[in-house]
């Protein structure tokens, strides 16, 4: 079986030699029994340190180490600047050879343990699934607040979208056709994890424990996480438009309350409405009209946005 590994790397100079050394050992002792041809694709996402030179050195070390065991190729790509992990993943899967039966996506910092790769391959072969998701059995050493925010986001998101993300990582095994379909999706502002769920196909799971990062720091700032979350809401759910609809429902309820109040004054108290009553009613009516036309515009934008994503209308899995 031909296997590919895709690894995005950003400012990993202190890590990359260690990662490749572990990988060489793993290929030699374990993976060589599962795969007869292997391509490691590492994408340097515009690192500001010397990740690129480390990758070149790590490549030579790895090739030396595995020589004579299994057919290994190492392909290194370097971005002109930091385009982000999503872009690095895309470049990585676009570089996968069409002959690779399976492709494993994993982080360069060993937080996605190499030992999980073989169980993923076994699951892939045993179940015939196109995607094997490595699911976090715990969220590593994340702080309480981080964990709470992430869990609330995923709970809310799972309820309001068609994709399942809870405890998912970008750590996945993809079949050849899943790689091809993901690589061909033309959309910008990608969210790899969600797209893997969106394309459908049979999914299987293996559990893994997130290892601790040994050197360096996580490149995900709070801001980049919020950005990813908002991309997710726009691209995979209708929540932003639904919120505008809820605003209008709220204003309508206020209006109904006001009319009931007027009726009470006119019919039960038998006194006339004063100017302030008329004024508040007109203001409310104005707000209703503005929100209503806003919603209409958003509905147009939503349709334009979906057209711009240009996702396929369907994906055929089998023909007979
Ligand atoms: N990464 C990348 N580009 C970026 C940020 C991160 O390619 O702009 C890579 C990084 O080198 C690592 C993976 O994405 O291989 C996950 O990043 P990190 O470990 O910082 O994130 P965390 O483990 O905290 O999710
Ligand atoms: Mg990490």
From TrEMBL:
Keywords: Cell membrane, Glycosyltransferase, Lipopolysaccharide biosynthesis, Membrane, Transferase, Transmembrane, Transmembrane helix. Gene3D superfamilies: Spore Coat Polysaccharide Biosynthesis Protein SpsA, Chain A. InterPro entries: Glyco_trans_2-like, Glycosyltransferase_2, Nucleotide-diphossugar_trans. This is Glycosyltransferase family 2 protein. Pfam families: Glycos_transf_2 (PF00535). It comes from the Bacteria. The chain crosses the membrane at residues 241-266, 278-296. Residues 4-152 form the Glycosyltransferase 2-like domain.
